[in-house]
Amino acid sequence: METLLEAFSVYQRAQNLADTTIRNRESIVRSFGRRVATPLLEVGTRELRQYIGRSGVTAGTRRTERGALIAFYACMVADGYLHSNPAEGLPVVRVPKGQPRPFSAEQVAVMLESGAYRRTRAMIMLGYHQGFRVSQIARVRGDDIDLAERTFSTVSKGGKPGLLPLHPEVAELALDMPRTGWWFPARDGSDRPIRGSSVTDLITKAIRRSGITDPRLTPHSLRHGFGSGLVEQGVDIRVVQELMLHEDLSTTQIYTQVSRKRKHEGIQALPSVRPPARSGRRIAA
Description:
Elements (H helix, E strand, L loop, with lengths): L1 H13 L4 H17 L9 H8 L6 H20 L26 H8 L5 H12 L4 H5 L6 E2 L4 E5 L5 E5 L2 H7 L21 H14 L11 H12 L4 H8 L4 H4 L7 H10 L16
Antiparallel strand pairs: 1-2, 2-3
Helix pairs in contact: 1-2, 2-4, 6-9, 6-10
């Protein structure tokens, strides 16, 4: 398996895919390889369908696994290990339209005041005020920030580079963070940043410490709070798309769904018409 996974890694790097994507796909192929009894190069479409369709898996996970397996077997065909791609027969996975799971500004304030350490607070700020994913937060460098121009350079999902405006709160935060090098270096002393999973763990602890118990709220919900907050303030959806570095506007459209707050405001805006205490009709003698 290791030889095949190394070939797959080289194949993806040649496509200029992000390290996070490569690692996630490798993990999916490894899990698949451990679960099936057949060697990877002898697997058929039926076994792939059974794996993707196993119980206890969300539609989003099925779609991600399908994409990873199609890419893996495409590599095997390109490198001459196989003559055809057995994963091409996998059906398209229908995924229900997602809904944002945003933190409110009040919840973020509680998290920041919950006793979280300075670097965890910085991570929360980057997620909420810049809309960064955990993988982006992990790889922030002081060199990415231009305080004079008020810009922030980052690399988003899929290795997409972006130059974003710097939020005033993050500009103030940057004054107390390293001007060069990693903001969140690995603890082993190497010149590497921490992993995105470590960012997830630290923010998750802050969520629990603050007493927030809603299971739908995760570190990624900070990004949802960013997108939802912009839409709530009337920012044009195309601007929101650019700020979130979304490739497709349809991805940004989930933030245009009417919020619970606006629904309450809408129902309260309807003029009240109270019924009389009694009908006023007289009963004939």
